[in-house]
């Protein structure tokens, strides 16, 4: 075993837990009252989340196709490097690092929010200062850093331990979610007629017109790169699989489907708890929690607390794993110092990259949720860019294979890029990857073009500009060392 090798201990359940845990976080239990219902209503949000999930499924085929040809940690970065060269690879890797890393401190600070909602703000002691209207408390910082330290230690100690932990937390999340949904269905409080208005909030009783309905739906669809980011973390851990790569697409689709169910059902459960969900979400700053308590009483809040805790912990561990593997891959190619590519000889993990991610993430709780939210908003652009690169890489690879089909390598086998032999270049994958590329670019447009549903706000644009400028400077500094 060489120093560059990782242990192959991840089973299909471990990998599904990694993806599902990254997809579902605190936002799934907060946004029904703050974003989803006020924007698109009950059925409008459900339709938007299903559309978003179907788009992710289309994109996932490109990932599974590329993983079969490039089974190396790094995912889209590796694909872009192989298909489009070092410049594109850096752009892809730079934005992916943002998309993954920004979610680690965001999940950490969600722990403080959860204790505010469920445990009467027990960690709100030692007020330090305020950032963009958000109070920073010493107790919540201590909580975030303690949990982050424990998960970092677990990640460094080996993928087997972290994989088991991720699986337990993911199944805890899924179980708690099922209990909430089943209880809501059979609760005497539930009345499914409460779901009206279906397509968005009515103003003075006036029904929405079709353009307003579709604008609301598209606004939620634009959130899909953020909502479903996580399924594509699977290729980051491909060097640690102990199973056939052929199972990757099924695992991705399973994680996306479960994620869609959680987003949609949380939304429906929230609306079903009151005859007037518009008034209900206006009266409660945490509509999901209030709805679950109305449907299940105090025991419901305990179950909800379990679900949220598991979601937060899986998010921290999942994105920490994905980011560290991406950094390791970039270091192998010289894009960042080789320090980050070293695999620990005892635990066979990229320990230095993990600790670096910990150090950066530990700064997050000192800035608060509002400032971190600006980074997370623009990180959706990074996720969408990653989707586009994966689909473009699949399209180019499939087209290349089709063009070279019939030609033989020196050993008499079909010739493929990189000297590999495999079946590829089918019309189906070219059509699917081309469709995925178009859809990915649509996501980018929805996020970046001013005036379109889902576009970034002012701070988001500013942060994106700063990140691009930093990337240009960093690339100029490293250009001569890139392999």
Explain briefly what this protein structure is:
With 483 residues, the protein is mainly α. It contains 17 helices and 2 strands.
Task: Give an overview of the whole structure.
67% of the residues lie in helices and 2% in strands. By secondary structure, the chain is mostly helical. It has one domain: Amino acid/polyamine transporter I (Up-down Bundle). The two termini are 24 Å apart.
Helix fraction?
Answer: 55-70%
- Helical stretch tally: 17
CATH class categorisation = Mainly Alpha
Global shape: globular
Through-space gap between termini: 24 Å
Summary keywords:
mainly alpha; Amino acid/polyamine transporter I; two-stranded antiparallel ribbon; 67% helix; 483 residues
Topology (SSEs and partners):
Layout: H1 12-23, H2 31-69, H3 76-84, H4 86-101, H5 103-118, E1 127-131, E2 134-137, H6 138-157, H7 159-186, H8 210-221, H9 224-227, H10 248-272, H11 277-283, H12 287-296, H13 298-332, H14 351-363, H15 368-404, H16 427-448, H17 458-478
Antiparallel strand pairs: 1-2
Helix pairs in contact: 1-7, 1-10, 1-13, 2-8, 2-10, 2-11, 2-15, 2-16, 3-4, 3-15, 4-13, 4-15, 5-6, 5-13, 5-15, 6-13, 6-14, 7-10, 7-13, 10-12, 12-13, 13-14, 15-16, 15-17
């Amino acid at each position: 075993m060489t120093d560059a090798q990782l242990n192959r201990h991840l089973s299909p359940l471990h990998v599904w837990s990694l993806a599902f845990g990254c997809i579902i976080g605190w936002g799934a239990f907060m946004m029904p009252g703050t974003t989803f219902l006020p924007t698109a209503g009950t059925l409008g949000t459900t339709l938007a989340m299903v559309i978003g999930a179907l788009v992710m499924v289309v994109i996932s085929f490109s990932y599974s196709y590329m993983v079969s040809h490039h089974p190396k940690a790094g995912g889209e970065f590796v694909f872009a490097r192989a298909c489009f060269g070092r410049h594109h690879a850096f752009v892809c890797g730079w934005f992916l690092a943002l998309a993954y890393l920004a979610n680690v401190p965001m999940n950490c600070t969600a722990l403080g929010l959860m204790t505010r909602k469920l445990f009467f703000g027990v960690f709100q002691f030692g007020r330090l200062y305020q950032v963009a209207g958000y109070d920073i408390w010493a107790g919540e910082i201590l909580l975030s850093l303690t949990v982050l330290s424990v998960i970092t230690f677990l990640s460094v100690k080996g993928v087997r331990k972290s994989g088991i932990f991720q699986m337990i937390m993911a199944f805890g999340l899924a179980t708690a979610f099922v209990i909430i949904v089943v209880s809501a269905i059979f609760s005497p409080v539930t009345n499914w007629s409460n779901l009206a208005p279906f397509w968005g909030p009515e103003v003075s009783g006036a029904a929405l017109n079709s353009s307003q309905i579709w604008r609301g739906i598209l606004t939620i669809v634009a959130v899909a790169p953020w909502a479903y980011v996580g399924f594509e973390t699977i290729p980051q851990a491909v060097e640690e699989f102990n199973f056939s790569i052929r199972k990757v697409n099924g695992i991705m689709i399973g994680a996306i489907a479960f994620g869609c169910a959680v987003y949609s059902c949380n939304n429906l459960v929230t609306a079903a708890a009151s005859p007037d969900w518009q008034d209900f979400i206006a009266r409660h700053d945490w509509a999901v929690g209030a709805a679950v308590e109305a449907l299940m009483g105090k025991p419901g809040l305990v179950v909800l607390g379990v679900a949220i805790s598991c979601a937060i912990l899986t998010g921290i561990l999942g994105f920490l794993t994905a980011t560290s593997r991406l950094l390791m891959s970039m270091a192998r190619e010289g894009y960042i110092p080789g320090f980050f590519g070293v695999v620990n000889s005892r635990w066979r993990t990229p320990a230095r990259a993990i600790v670096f991610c910990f150090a950066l993430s530990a700064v997050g709780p000192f800035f608060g949720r509002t400032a971190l939210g600006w980074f997370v908003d623009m990180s959706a652009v990074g996720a969408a860019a990653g989707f586009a690169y994966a689909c473009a890489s699949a399209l180019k690879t499939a087209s290349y294979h089709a063009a070279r089909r019939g030609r033989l390598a020196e050993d008499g086998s079909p010739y493929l890029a990189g000297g590999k032999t495999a079946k590829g270049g089918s019309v189906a994958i070219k059509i699917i990857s081309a469709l995925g590329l178009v859809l990915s670019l649509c996501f980018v447009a929805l996020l970046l073009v001013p005036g379109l549903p889902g576009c970034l706000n002012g701070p988001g644009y500013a942060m994106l500009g700063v990140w691009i400028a930093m990337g240009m400077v960093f690339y100029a500094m490293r250009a001569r060392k890139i392999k």
